[in-house]
Amino acid sequence: MTERVAVRCNINPLTRAESLRYVEHRLQRVGGASASIFTAPALELILWKARGIPRRINILCHTAMLFRVRTRRAAGEPLARAASRYVRRKAADS
């Protein structure tokens, strides 16, 4: 894999405030807002589980939104927990 990577960079994890701004920015780019998609407890759980890593934030938010569509429920804390468990299982399988 290192043969295919032209540039490599290490960044520090985002703070909680930076992570929240990151989620807001990504949702605003597609015409949404975190308050209309995630409950406050769900977003807090996602940010806590992601530990400031943007890729993890993306994966957890995306998975929670997919679960929301599939179950037709609000993306509250139970869905965020389910998304976290799902991502953890998939990571263990690979």
Short synopsis of the structure:
Helix content is 68%, strand content 0%.
Class based on secondary structure composition and strand pairing = mainly alpha
Biggest sheet, in brief?
none
Rg on CA atoms, Å: 14 Å
What is the distance, rounded to the nearest whole angstrom, between the alpha carbons of the first and last residues?
16 Å
Number of strands: 0
Helix content estimate: 55-70%
Given as residue ranges, the uncertain stretches (5+ residues, pLDDT < 50) are: none
What does this structure look like?
By secondary structure, the chain is mostly helical. 68% of the residues lie in helices and 0% in strands. It contains 5 helices and no strands. The chain has helices spanning 16-29, 34-37, 40-50, 54-71, 77-93. Helix 3 packs antiparallel against helix 4, helix 3 packs parallel to helix 5 (77-93) and helix 4 (54-71) packs across helix 5 (77-93). The chain is globular, with a radius of gyration of 14 Å.
List descriptors.
globular, 94 residues, 5 helices
Layout of helices and strands:
Blueprint: H1 16-29, H2 34-37, H3 40-50, H4 54-71, H5 77-93
Helix pairs in contact: 3-4, 3-5, 4-5
